[in-house]
Amino acid sequence: MPSPVSVRDTTQAWEALFSAQVTIMRRLQRHPAFKRLTMREYDVLVTLGKCPNGGIRLGTLNENVLLSQPSLSRMVDRLEAKGYISRCGDPQDQRAVLLSLTDEGRRIQREIGREHVRHIHELIGPGLEAEEFAELTRLTRKLSESVQSRD
User: What is the per-residue DSSP string for 37-86?
Assistant: First the structure.
């Protein structure tokens, strides 16, 4: 039987995880690839690029990014003005609007994505062994699933 987890154990683990994430994200944000788009804008483009049917409602997009709804609305307006996102009516609900990537949005997302993935590897690749990355992936997925199962 697993030993009980203390408040101290969970707090220390959370602080270590959060600290590592903040440290890594700050370094990633300084990469030249994010001079063209902010990391948050890139995140929106990546999320839109993962949509199986090519479009997503603003509310659903908001559930998948770390932005407030008003901030996301303004960002979507900016990305649309740059030609990276388009809006179209939802065939399932005439009152709703779907957001999707334009060809130019998909191009820049992929271009920045290639640079971003290489930079991630350069930055954190030397930090752990292959087995440790596998364990980290397993553990973080397990944590996510545990929290999501309580929704």
Answer: S-HHHHHHHHHHHT-TTS-EEHHHHHHTSSS-HHHHHHHHHHHHHTTSEE
Q: For the CA atoms of 98, 141, 129, 24, what is the dihedral angle to 10 degrees?
A: 50
Residue pLDDT, tens place only, 52-79? 776 898 888 888 888 888 889 999 999 9
- pLDDT for 102: 95
Q: What is the CATH number of domain 7-148?
A: 1.10.10.10
pLDDT of residue 54: 65
- List the domain boundaries for the chain: 7-148
Count CB atoms within 10 A of the CB of residue 75: 19
d(CA 55, CA 16): 36
Residue 136's Cβ-count burial label (10 Å; 0-12, 13-18, 19+) is middle
Q: Can you give the pTM of this predicted structure?
A: 0.84
**Residue 91: strand, helix, or coil:** coil
Cα–Cα dist 26/24, whole Å: 5
Q: Please say whether the dihedral angle defined by the alpha carbons of residues 143, 144, 145 and 146, taken in this order, is positive or negative.
A: positive
